[in-house]
Amino acid sequence: MDYQLKEEGQFKYIEAGEGKPLILLHGLFGALSNFRDVVDHFSKEYTVVIPMLPLYTMPLLTTGVKSLAHFLHDFINYKKWDKVNLLGNSLGGHVALVYTREHPEKVSSLILTASSGLYENAFGSSFPRREDKEFIRQKVAVTFFDPKHATDELVNECFEVVNDRNRVLRILALAKSAIRHNMAKDLPDMKMPACLIWGKNDTITPPEVAEEFHQLLPNSSLFWIDECGHAPMMEHPQTFNQILDEWLRSNDK
After folding, report:
1. Where are the domains of the chain?
2. Taking a C-beta distance cutoff of 8 angstroms, is the pair 85, 21 a contact?
3. Where are the beta strands (DSSP E) in the chain?
4. pLDDT at 126
5. In 10 A of CB 34, how many CB atoms?
6. What pairing do the DSSP bridges indicate for beta strands 20-25 and 11-16?
7. Domain 6-251 has CATH 3.10.180.10
8. Would you say 209 and 94 are in contact if contact means Cβ atoms under 8 Å apart?
9. Smallest Cα–Cα separation from 81: which of 47, 33, 123?
10. Cα distance between residue 36 and residue 62, in whole Å
11. What is the CA radius of gyration of the chain?
């Protein structure tokens, strides 16, 4: 199903369905299309919304996860929602965590999949080699257990990003911000139901990161998907949706 991008003031977002709000937060190289199967499935019972996070349009000096969490707060206020369910992948999970720390009364449930916030093995010291598309293809492939998911479309999107100097500067600023904003000390205070869905073969936020989240979040459930990397909702969408559907039915009261 194709979804129309709404533009209202400073906000651009996709919205589908009716019911309690389920906000999907994409990662650093994430596209709205990463959540297509999640939107299709959950829009039958929820108002599913994907706001476009202003990763590359914030002032460089304020580019970071805290500013993205402030943006999310403004968006939720704009939509006049009292309570929301937050689902974040990678950097999007980190944004959800920072928002939850600041506004726990607004969060009904927290769903993290391959979230940063404790540790992330991203591009590392080898990033970026801008002119080398094959290097970018290898880095995109590492995101998945099965490299077939590193499509030409994804590779071209990432190649375009890392060949834009302004975007690269913001990526580096966001990466540094993510390291600075380690959430370990904050997690025990987040007492709302939390669902952790993790790929067993994730090399960017490895399985031990999921275990640490599970240990520190007091009301969390941890689910594994085998033969799965850093984007479970893309690589195994049916399994991901089934896990989340059953969990929400038990925990989203």
Report:
1. 6-251
2. yes
3. 6-8, 11-16, 20-25, 46-51, 84-89, 107-113, 194-199, 220-225
4. 45
5. 21
6. unpaired
7. no
8. no
9. 47
10. 30
11. 17
> pLDDT band for position 132 (50/70/90)?
confident
Helices 152-162/133-142 angle, 10° precision: 120
* CA 155 to each of CA 132, 151, 159: distance values in angstroms, whole numbers, following the listed order: 11, 6, 6
CA distance 156 to 18: 34
> Do 50 and 39 contact (CB within 8 A), yes or no?
yes
The tokens for 245 are 């559907």
Give the closest residue to 140 by CA, choosing from 127, 151, 132, 129. Answer: 151
Which residues are within 8 A (CB) of 228 and not within 5 positions of it... i.e. 6 or more apart? 145, 199, 200, 201, 202, 235, 236
**Cα–Cα distance list, 52 to 11, 58, 148, 157, 244 (Å):** 7, 12, 26, 15, 22
What confidence tens digit (pLDDT) does each residue in 156-207 have? 887 887 778 888 888 888 888 888 889 999 999 999 999 999 999 999 999 9
Q: Report residue 18: phi and psi, to 5°.
A: -135, 150
pTM of the predicted model as reported, rounded to 2 decimal places: 0.90
- For the purposes of burial, counting CB atoms within 10 Å of the CB of 207, is it exposed (0-12), middle (13-18) or buried (19 or more)? middle
What is the DSSP pairing of strand 84-89 with strand 20-25?
parallel
Token digits of residue 102: 């600041």
pLDDT at res. 190: 97
